[in-house]
Amino acid sequence: MGDPAVVVGVDIGTTSTKAVAFDTGGRQLASHSIGYPLEEPHPGWAEQDPDLIYEAVVGAIHAVVDELHRPIAGLSFSTAMHSLIGLDADGRPLTPSITWADSRASAQAERLRAAPSGLALHRRTGTPVHPMAPLPKLVWFAEQEPKLHERVAHWVGIKDLVLRRLAEALVTDHSVASATGLMDIHRLAWDGEALRVAGITEEQLPQLVPTTHVLPGLTAEAARATGLPADTPLVVGAGDGPLANLGLGAVQPGVVACSIGTSGAMRVMVERPSVDPLGGVFCYALTENRWVVGGAINNGGIVLQWANDALAPELGEHAEEELLDLAARAPVGSGGLIMLPYLLSERAPHWSALPRGAYVGLTHGHGRPHLVRAALEGVCQQLALVLSSVRAAGNEVREIRASGGFARSPLWRQILADALGLPVRFPAGHEGSSFGAALLGMQALGLIESIEVAADLVRIEETVRPDPASAATYAALLPLFSELYDALVPTFASLRRLAPSLPPEPPPTAAPQ
Q1: Which residues cross the membrane (predicted)?
Q2: Helix 410-420 crosses helix 320-328 at what angle (to 10 degrees)?
Q3: Which residue blocks in 259-367 are alpha helix, DSSP H?
Q4: Are 300 and 264 in contact (CB under 8 A)?
Q5: Are 269 and 253 within 8 A, CB to CB?
Q6: Radius of gyration (Cα) for the chain, nearest Å?
Q7: Which of 58, 103, 417, 512 could form a disulfide with 225 if both were Cys (CB 3.0 to 4.6 A apart)?
């Protein structure tokens, strides 16, 4: 018997593309990452140069090919969701890549969300009506850049553009399409009403294909750029969120994947698409019989970074450990201090660009330890609200698997388990989305029987169980945390109205990822 087959999972992320080679036993063999900037030319805008991203993709693949020195059975792709690029008839970009973090379409999203058809649109397409999504962005282009909107021959996402250049195919997968707000998730077809609202036609969008769709090979130019044979198959792949579940082995119903990086997310795999009655969750495809239901939050590790800059600047940059030591000095519940961590507005479960951060309950007795701990607790309480929405969509939750930079902190691990009231299991370091992409590629190429093997390939390194007393404290505080959002919405709206007449607010400490 020869060596096991190798598939390269290519994860096109918000700040870098990472190519990682795995064999069919789940072993990581080689890895390379290339970064690129996220530009903010105006407040609330977050865009990238698609040419730089394409160069990073081929460069990362070429580096892995050079490192491996063995045949590669195929490439399979993961991507950050919600990106939007306008192309001319020759496939050249007329716009930058407008990322999920871009909030220029806030007014359009709020108007669509408040319309009588807003919730129905969400439940039909699986995508919340929020400025992150391509649908409100398309409305923004129609209203603010009508001449450009008319010139665009095709509207695509970043992975669609990469695949067009690699293989000359204009396709998008059901997973990425389910995060556009333009596809009916129940019919797996472009949604006529959504297209009408966006002011575009079906002919301006890529062909819809399953995530396991295989493109037969590379163009001669792409083969040279990647160092691969021209007949190397390309598996179209999926969005990074659903693939992160797969990469964590969270493939069975009831197993929730939770991640806290700069932002955060919570997703559970289900067998049929559904959205809760209040529209608190998204529903994105992985395969025809595997979907993820959940929610993303804008404010994860960015909150700790803000605390470093605003509350303890004398500690210098990258002082996470000292900050966490400070937080550990405060009691569970931060002495009744609650922080709404909406520094970069918020997504799930309210899906509004209105909210801002707030400390509530501040007294003379609170010090820096309380302020920092309340920030960490606020992030975890927000994830607890997302978990409630996941359950409200009719999903059983029996296990949490967590990943992300926060997992390096024992304190943050424990706060998360206590806030969720469930044991949290931490897998040994797999490259989440790129491993998920590789596994999906292996199934598509017939190298493994099913993506179900993911559950067996992912080894659990540690399980953190909730402390009963701490969990009870957080459970008692969660309704207050939830009520504060509703109570402050009028204040958030007033602040937005006043904003043009106030001195400009400072820029964010960093763009969200």
Answers
A1: none
A2: 50
A3: 301-311, 320-328
A4: yes
A5: yes
A6: 22
A7: 58
Is 132 within 8 Å of 82 (Cβ atoms)?
yes
The gap from C-alpha 477 to its chain's centroid, in whole angstroms, comes to 27
Q: How far apart are CA 220 and CA 231, in angstroms?
A: 10
Cα distances (angstroms) measured from residue 50 to each of 88, 161, 237:
14, 8, 19
Separation between Cα atoms, residue 119 and residue 495, nearest integer Å: 26
H-type alpha helices, 320-464: 320-328, 368-392, 410-420, 432-444, 454-457
SS3 403: strand
- pLDDT value at 512 more than 50: no
Residues 6+ apart with CB under 8 A from 437: 9, 10, 11, 76, 77, 78, 235, 237, 238, 243, 247
N- to C-terminal Cα distance for the chain? 43
Task: Tell the burial category of 247 from Cβ atoms under 10 Å away from its Cβ (0-12, 13-18, 19+).
Answer: buried
Q: How far is CA 339 from the centre of its chain?
A: 23
Q: Give the 3-state secondary structure of 262-290.
A: CCEEEEEEECCCCCCCCCCCEEEEEECCE
Rounded CA separation 37/49 (Å): 8
Cis amide linkage into residue 131, ω under 30° from 0: no
- The three-class DSSP label of residue 426 is strand
Give dist(CA 210, CA 177) in Å, integer: 10
* Residue 509 pLDDT greater than 60, yes or no: no
Are the CB atoms for 170 and 164 separated by under 8 Å?
yes
pLDDT tens for each residue of 114-141:
999 999 999 999 999 999 999 999 999 9
Provide the 3-class DSSP secondary structure of residue 9.
strand
